[in-house]
Design a protein that fits this description.
273 residues; Rossmann fold; seven-stranded mixed beta sheet; two-stranded antiparallel sheet; 10 helices; 17% strand; globular; binds S-adenosylmethionine; methyltransferase; methyltransferase activity; S-adenosyl-L-methionine; peptide chain release factor N(5)-glutamine methyltransferase
């Protein structure tokens, strides 16, 4: 098959770019060449539902590339709104000193640095998976202390690798949820209802399921954060969980606000304890 035919196939361009190690422009300029034989094996595997991110051990999140492998959840674009919300809280409300990155010109550089009880502001990313949330926040706010936890050995291994790749200093801890104090709790926990089918057979069940209504782990995280005297929590949830979670939050926290993703579906909640 010639490159020009492969370019018309779903994921064809991405597979070729990775295999030949050339960009899209090169592929178009050389589209009369034959594709390498490995192309077909990979293309068929992806067509049968194997995640392409696991084939090339790479995923993009918030404009940066991360390592990922089978057994660890592939970060989703929707989770970027959780990160955005945390960056906004740190920048606009808490006025923490930030580092300006080209990819997001919205953030203003502030010269103030928030210190709580004369100590560094501390964020705990519970259920960190590949570490993308914790690492992105640390890149924007290098002065804050970031701790990331996960119950899975594989996730902690991948997250550590990603922190090294992006040269950020994060404390990783393998544990059930979290047990240390902090100021802001952030999490994309498992929140899928047990009765829902999995998107594929290759990502781990433990990354998805959160009980009958999906909120078992979310509720536990909120109670722990409250008991450990966190000031804020930002948690990803499902589009249909607002009502159940509102009832739970009503008498437990000072304020809470649900926020939406780009498709205008409910995607998370920000809590002030
Ligand atoms: C939905 S994934 C999120 C991963 C990553 N934060 C992201 O957004 O791509 C949930 C993660 O929670 C972890 N997890 C599940 N139960 C846990 C528990 N009881 N304590 C800590 N981590 C847990 C899973 O291993 C998985 O990595």
């Amino acid at each position: 098959m010639k490159i020009k035919e492969a370019l018309k196939l779903k994921n064809g361009s991405y597979i070729l770019e990775k295999l030949i190690n050339k960009d899209k422009a090169w592929l178009f300029l050389n589209d009369e060449l034959e594709v390498p034989s490995e192309f077909f094996k990979i293309y068929e595997k992806v067509k049968r539902g194997y995640p392409i991110e696991y084939i090339f051990n790479e995923v993009e999140f918030y404009g940066k590339k991360y390592y990922v492998k089978e057994g660890v959840l592939i970060p989703r674009d929707d989770t970027e709104v959780i990160v955005e919300r945390a960056l906004k809280l740190l920048d606009e409300e808490l006025k923490v000193k930030s580092k300006k990155f080209k990819i997001n010109e919205k953030l203003n550089v502030k010269n103030e640095k928030l210190e709580i009880n004369n100590e560094k502001l501390k964020i705990v990313d519970c259920c960190t998976g590949s570490g993308v949330i914790a690492i992105t926040i640390k890149q924007y706010f290098p002065d804050i202390e970031v701790v990331a936890t996960d119950i899975s050995d594989k996730a902690i291994e991948v997250a550590k690798k990603n922190a090294k790749l992006h040269d950020v200093d994060i404390k990783f801890k393998k544990c059930n949820l979290f047990d240390e104090k902090g100021d802001i709790l952030i999490s994309n926990p498992p929140y899928v209802e047990n009765s829902y089918p999995k998107p594929n057979d290759y990502e781990p069940d433990i990354a998805f399921y959160g009980g009958v209504d999906g909120l078992d782990i979310v509720r536990e995280i909120i109670l722990r954060a409250k008991n450990l005297e966190y000031k804020y929590a930002i948690i990803e949830i499902g589009y249909n969980q607002k009502e159940n979670l509102s009832k739970f939050l009503e008498d437990k926290v000072k304020e809470y606000e649900f926020f939406k993703d780009l498709a205008r579906n409910i995607r998370g909640v920000e809590i002030k304890f």
